[in-house]
Amino acid sequence: MIPYGRQTVDEDDVRAVVEVLHSAWLTTGPMVDRFESDLAARVGAKHAVAVSSGTAALHAMMYAIGLTAGDEVIVPPMTFASTANSVVFQGATPVFTDVDPETLLLCPDRIEEKITDKTRAVLPVDYAGQPCDYDALRDITDRHNLVLLSDACHALGARDKDRPTGILGDLTAFSFHPVKHIATGEGGMITTDDDEFAQRMRIFRNHCITTDHRQRAEQGSWFYEMVDLGFNYRITDIQCALGVSQLKKLSGWLARRRAIARRYDEVLAEVDGINPLGVRADCEHAYHLYVVRLDLEKIGKTRQDVFGRLRAAGVGVNVHYIPVHFHPFYRRRFGTSRGLCPVAESAYERILSLPMYAGLTEQDQQTVIQALRDLV
Ligand SMILES: *Cc1c(COP(=O)(O)O)cnc(C)c1O
Question: What is the mean pLDDT of residues 131-141?
Fold first, then answer.
């Protein structure tokens, strides 16, 4: 089965990890600092704080801004559940706001009707790797005095006009899960230009203890204080060594993802009934996913049928995503139901993600293309 996404790991990566295993620090060591400074430099942010997952990154962001019970955060439903979950972790309420039908990105025109006196932040998702329209979003958050966050777990290496993801929101979350652009096994990062946010997240990932193990070792001190309730969201040096090595290859991988997307675009222009999502002008897509919309009437099949046929042909298609407000937890806790975000709900019925990763060979892409042609 050709998967929809997977990591690329080479001998340099293996060597980098083995080297750390022979070193003094397996966690909270110098390789964490190195990964942070390399990623901060890559996106042009002042600070980068590495944590144990993209989900931890989102949660740390919510802690950084002081989100608390009673607050509301505007989120799109077309995302992985942890985008909204991070709001709930802090006792606050995610307010699901519909997406644009062409791009499935949070729709700026829908936001203001959802803003109340409890709204603290807007958390757009750069769905599939395409950055949202951050100028339009910033205009709204400035006018209403809200924090502009960014879930860029799909979009490392993307650009909105000439500005890279990582500096588009006041705080930006990345994930290094193996299907994302670079892999650390599990891992995440938050970038920000704000000194206080960065400091709050550095202690939050370590139980809100004011010093970490290495700092105490360097100071020859045993004393520490826990100043707030935090978590163990630390990432290991083993993971960060892999991250540092992977980051060096990001540019080449992005070029490969874009070439794969161009090939799909060309082919699908000739295939009736299977349409790629729209791409905004003035942005550079990072293509975490290549999502198509099926014209089910034209194809004369159900999505389940299309899904089954492609899987049977060895093409590991997937669906990103079930709208988050459909999940039983959200229905139960927040009373969400069908009809809340009609654009996302209708898109959900007809989307499929085709295989997209840097290591996808031309031959495998040809297998995918042939399976699509056979289908229609
Ligand atoms: C992957 C992902 C996350 C969560 O990242 P993990 O590293 O798996 O915790 C959050 N949001 C989006 C949009 C993602 O794709």
Answer: 98
Residue 316: both structure tokens together: 């590991």
- Atom of ligand 1 minimally distant from the CA of 179: 1
| Fold equal for 11-247 and 250-375 | no
- Euclidean distance between CA atoms 324 and 358, whole angstroms: 28
Measure Cα distances from 233 to 91, 140, 171 in Å: 19, 32, 17
Across residues 9-35, what is the average pLDDT?
97
Burial class (CB in 10 A: 0-12, 13-18, 19+), 34: middle
pTM: 0.97
- In sequence order, the β-bridge partners of residue 232 are 206
Q: Quick one: CA torsion of 199, 200, 203, 206, rounded to 10 degrees?
A: -130
Predicted pLDDT of residue 295: 96
Residue 294 has pLDDT above 90, yes or no: yes
| Mean pLDDT on 107-114 | 98
Tokens standing for residue 306: 């299309």
Superfamily holding 250-375: Aspartate Aminotransferase, domain 1 (3.90.1150.10)
**Topology adopted by domain 11-247:** Aspartate Aminotransferase; domain 2 (3.40.640)
- 151 pocket-lining for ligand 1 (C-beta < 6 Å): yes
Active site residue 180: yes
Q: Of these residues, 180, 248, 298, 301, which one is catalytic?
A: 180
Domain range list for the chain: 11-247, 250-375
pLDDT tens for 44-62 read 999 999 999 999 999 999 9
Query: In this predicted structure, what is the pLDDT of residue 211?
Result: 85
Strands 93-96 and 47-51: unpaired
Instruction: Note whether 267 and 372 are within 8 A (CB).
Output: yes
**CA 228 / ligand 1 centre spacing (Å):** 26
Instruction: Kindly report the backbone phi and psi dihedral angles of residue 150, in degrees, each rounded to the nearest multiple of 5, phi listed first.
Output: -150, 125
For the CA of 53, the nearest atom of ligand 1: 7
Q: Tens digits of per-residue pLDDT, 330-358?
A: 999 999 999 999 999 999 999 999 999 99
Q: In this structure, which residue's CA is closest to atom 6 in ligand 1? A: 54
Ligand 1 atom at minimum distance from 126 CA: 13
